[in-house]
């Protein structure tokens, strides 16, 4: 294959990226690579609650619309990210819960309205939604969030049901990080999916974020973990792949990084239910890693100048 778009067509899985909307609007070179290489897109931030409803009842869809419109013009499918999360909630919501002006019944209807409004707005335009994001802790207990605390564990089933009602065609995913290898998280998430299925809740997929660091071993059991979820009848996606390194960058680290990317693609290709591999940003010019991991960076397929890194070539070489 000549590029990732050709690779996607030949291999039958969509290759996607998270998109920075300001860069999409303002940087012609970014836009060019995005639309040449990728057949799936996720808004890095633009569909999160704080982005779409910064003030109560005041919706700001312009950025999300820009992503969806660009995708339609460029033959890209869209992953909606994300409906229920504990981060990047609007201040009016967290403050209202904290000071008691938003009670539990009201919070439940706020969540229902949020899901219904956002999913309905993009009905027919979103292939898959990350309905719930990061709902299990590292130790395998349910994550302590305002949702669990105020609504009880039933909020997860409710969220899937509300999303399904708003767009019956969209594939509905549970999404998490460290699900590639963390046993307690894996077991709890599998049990949660089984429980939802037993109760007839519409859940269709499991997303593995795939935020890897090359200073750690590659999660060698990942394909088996994917298979365990696939065996429940779920579609599998790698939703946020990157492979960060401790700076400075060296040729050797870039080669190691290349193997992490190619192994992730190989793992996805080895599981029939894995239909999408999305990277969390394609260029080091716009990557969340330096801002979130002290002293780390260079996590993407393209460098700051949009030159292809060894990891990019390694993906094209996967058979
Ligand atoms: C990150 C974005 O990349 C940053 O720009 C933002 O400041 C914080 O969130 N898991 C997720 C993503 O599901 O939404 C996160 O994205 C990265 C970790």
Labels describing this entry:
14 helices, eight-stranded parallel barrel, 319 residues, globular, 10 strands, binds (3S,4R)-3-hydroxy-2-oxopiperidin-4-yl beta-D-xylopyranoside
Please give a quick description of this structure.
Belongs to the glycosyl hydrolase 10 (cellulase F) family. It is an enzyme of class 3 (hydrolase). Helices cover 44% and strands 18% of the residues.
Q: Which strand order does the major sheet show? A: 1-2-3-4-5-6-8-9
CATH homologous superfamily heading: Glycosidases
Helices and strands, in N-to-C order?
HEHHEHHEHHEHHEHEEHEHEHEH
Bound ligands: (3S,4R)-3-hydroxy-2-oxopiperidin-4-yl beta-D-xylopyranoside
Poorly predicted runs: none
Largest sheet, in brief, is: 8 strands, parallel, barrel
Task: Label the structural class.
Answer: alpha/beta
Radius of gyration: 19 Å
Shape: globular
Instruction: State the end-to-end CA separation.
Output: 10 Å
CATH topology: TIM Barrel
Number of separate strands = 10
Question: What is the level-2 CATH architecture name?
Answer: Alpha-Beta Barrel
Helix count, DSSP H or I runs of 4 or more residues: 14
**Number of structural units classed as domains:** 1
Instruction: Look at the structure and give the CATH class.
Output: Alpha Beta
Mean pLDDT: 98
Fraction of residues in H or I helices: 40-55%
Report the β-strand fraction as a percent range: 15-25%
Domain GH10: 1-318
Keywords: Carbohydrate metabolism, Glycosidase, Hydrolase, Polysaccharide degradation, Signal, Xylan degradation
Enzyme class: hydrolase
Family: Belongs to the glycosyl hydrolase 10 (cellulase F) family.
